Amino acid sequence: MCRNDFLLTMKKYFLILFLLLLSGKAFSQETAVQSQETGNNYQKAEFPGGDEAFQQEFMNMVYSYIDMALYAIQGQVTFIFNIDTKGKINKIDVLPKFKNNEMFIDDMKYAAKKVKGKWSPATRNGIPVDSKFVMKVNFKHNTYDHD
C-alpha cells in the first residue's frame, strides 16, 4: 500500500512539473514586435516633422528631466509607444525587461508628456485607430544613439 501511495504522489509531481514547463512556454515574453499594417486603407500615425523629430525630442526630454544614472542602462533598448485614437501616447513598453523596469517606464511616460507636438493618429478607412510606434535606442555611458 505504501508503494502505491509513493507512485501516485510521484505521478502527481511529474504532472505538475510538466504543466509548469508547458505554462512557461505559453507565458514567455514575446520580444518580436509586430509590424504595422500597410495597405491602401491604413495610414500610420504621424508626428509633426516625422519619426526622427519625435525621436530627437523624446530623447532630449529624457536627458533633460530623467536621471539616467539611476538605471545604468547599457546596450539597445526598444521602446514601444501606443498611440491612441486622439494622438496621445497612452502606454509605453520597454524591451528587454530589467531591474527597476516599472520605475523606468514611469519616467519615460513623464518624458513623453513633455514632448511638444501631438501625433496624428493612425487611420483605417478614414477612422482613427490605436497604433504602435517602435523606437530602438542604444545607450552607452550616459549617451544615446537611436536607430
Indicate the structural class: alpha+beta
Instruction: Fill in the CATH topology.
Output: Fusion Protein Consisting Of Minor Coat Protein, Glycine Rich Linker, Tola, And A His Tag, Chain: A, Domain 2
Work out the helix count.
3
Task: Provide the CATH architecture.
Answer: 2-Layer Sandwich
Low-pLDDT regions: 25-36
Radius of gyration: 22 Å
Tell me the β content: 25-35%
Keywords: Signal
Signal peptide: 1-28
Protein name: TonB protein C-terminal
Domain TonB C-terminal: 72-140
What can you tell me about this protein's structure?
This protein is an alpha+beta fold. The protein has one domain: Fusion Protein Consisting Of Minor Coat Protein, Glycine Rich Linker, Tola, And A His Tag, Chain: A, Domain 2, CATH 3.30.1150. The protein is built from 3 helices and 7 strands, in the order H-E-H-E-E-H-E-E-E-E. The strands form 2 sheets. Strands 3-2-6-7 form a 4-stranded antiparallel β-sheet, with helices on one face. It has a 3-stranded antiparallel β-sheet with strand order 1-4-5, with no helix packed on it. A hairpin with a 2-residue loop joins strand 4 (122-124) and strand 5 (127-129). Helix 2 crosses helix 3 (101-114). The radius of gyration is 22 Å and the shape is elongated. The N and C termini lie far apart (67 Å). 12% of the residues are buried. Residues 25-36 have low confidence and may be disordered. Residues 1-28 form the signal peptide. This is TonB protein C-terminal.
